[in-house]
Design brief:
Length: 448
């Protein structure tokens, strides 16, 4: 098993606390001959690909026929090597695709990987997860292992799987085995591949945990067992809440650096030389993606219903939510400094996906930035070769610029810089707002 030291700021006692980790060591050969992955999005598809094997049948189940067609034709947001491996697996039959829920009944293991977003009021939207779990429960049979990976509030595994299965007369821990194992997929980051990323498993019973770990271990070299699904559920929330608080702090330090005329990237890198007690993040135009802007609200919602206030988390999420507005404000300030009326000014947003190297627009700060500038009457466009067309929250469809010229824009906002893309044209723009803080190829750039 790969060794992974604990990432804890506990005054050097990580090695002592590591003894509390319960590493799963299989006692017997794998017995899961067939696995169905429910949901083939950013988590489900890589999960299915990681599980594929010549000796076990893996089926990806999704209710969207359009999604299945996109997977078959390779029109998915995966690195080139993974797309080729996916195509080879489909051709060899190692991975099959289906929108027929009856495939669930024949599986030895079922892994639920559906999205868990929040609504406009920042409350959990469990529609997809509830529907998926209801389908899984309806087709469940004795001997199955059912694993939930979708990030959600504490108690969901018990509420949506354990209790409904019991109502069907299936004894969890004896007839079926249920566990929660949070996904740890980092899209676009080749340093964090699934095989080398440890996973946590919390079972409804000890035997549930062990059976689920047998399945999860097919995707990673390191599996750690915790005492319950609830512990595993809160573990995932804690991981992403930590990132949210850390990113909010990084943005505040960047604001402090602006007042003190210092470079926040240099300060962060210097602080990062300390080998203990510090884990830095870089500032930016906001926080996007499927996890950090959403997951903390699952805990905030749950604790709020129980009357508990957690002000650090609340303030961090408020700070994150306000960050795109700061970008809009800075654009207006830069136009004002140039004595340009912002009404009708031409502004280009460079890069609109939430993260470099991915074609994922979910919760991207670029969306409220584009909308906010449009509301001010600014003629705003965008450039992102990975996303040629996008749609704003109000339904406005935008088509990206194909070959921008810097001199054509009053302000260029560097939002997301994709690897392998040439942004040298930005040097010709008279005003550049570098929301990444890292594009020093433009000497006259400004930062937030």
């Amino acid at each position: 098993m790969t060794e992974h030291p604990l990432a804890l700021a506990v005054n050097g006692r990580e090695r002592l606390l590591a003894d509390r980790l319960i590493a799963f060591e299989p006692r017997e050969p794998e017995r899961t001959d067939s696995v169905v992955v429910v949901g083939l999005g950013y988590v489900g598809l890589p999960t299915a690909c990681a599980l594929r094997s010549p000796t076990a049948q893996v089926t990806g189940f999704d209710i969207s026929e359009d999604r299945l067609r996109a997977i078959k034709t390779g029109e998915v947001d995966l690195p080139e090597l993974e797309r080729k491996a996916l195509s080879a697996s489909l051709a060899a039959g190692d991975l099959q695709l289906s929108c027929d829920p009856s495939v669930l009944g024949g599986a030895d293991a079922v892994i639920v990987c559906v999205p868990t977003p929040v609504d406009t009021a920042h409350e959990p939207d469990l529609a997809a997860l509830r529907a998926a779990c209801e389908t899984v429960v309806s087709f469940a049979r004795r001997g199955q292992v059912i694993i939930l990976t979708s990030t959600t509030f504490v108690g969901t595994t018990r509420q949506l799987l354990v209790e409904p299965l019991a109502e069907r007369g299936l004894r969890v821990g004896t007839d079926v085995h249920v566990a929660f194992s949070p996904e740890r997929i980092d899209p676009g980051n080749f340093d964090h591949v699934q095989r080398e990323t440890p996973r946590v498993v919390g079972g409804a019973t000890q035997r549930c945990a062990e059976r689920a770990a047998e399945v999860v271990r097919r995707m990673t070299d390191s599996v750690y067992l915790v005492s319950s699904p609830e512990v595993a559920e809160l573990t995932k929330l804690y991981e992403n809440i930590f990132r949210a608080v850390n990113l909010a702090l990084a943005n505040e330090i960047a604001d402090a650096c602006a007042v003190l005329d210092l470079d926040p990237i240099e300060v962060t890198i210097a602080a990062g030389t300390k080998p203990y007690g510090f884990l830095g993040s870089f500032p930016g135009p906001g926080v996007g993606g499927h996890c950090i802007p959403c997951d903390p609200y699952y805990l905030l919602w749950q604790l709020g219903r129980q009357g508990l206030s957690v002000p650090v988390i609340e303030q961090a999420m408020q700070s994150i939510d306000q960050r795109p507005g700061r970008v809009v404000q800075r654009v207006v300030e830069m136009l004002g400094e140039a004595v340009l009326d912002h009404s009708g000014a031409r502004v280009l947003i460079a890069g609109v996906s939430y993260k470099a190297g991915v074609r994922d627009l979910r919760e991207s700060p670029a969306l409220p930035i584009l909308a906010g500038l449009r509301r001010l009457g600014i003629d705003v466009h965008y450039y992102d070769p990975l996303l040629p067309e996008i749609t704003l929250a109000d339904g406005t469809a935008l088509t990206g610029e194909q070959s921008p010229r810097g001199r054509d824009w009053d302000v260029t906002v560097l939002h997301t810089l994709h690897p392998g893309i040439d942004y040298s044209w930005a040097r010709d723009c008279p005003r550049v707002l570098d929301a990444t803080y890292q594009f020093d190829a433009v000497p006259h750039r400004r930062v937030l």
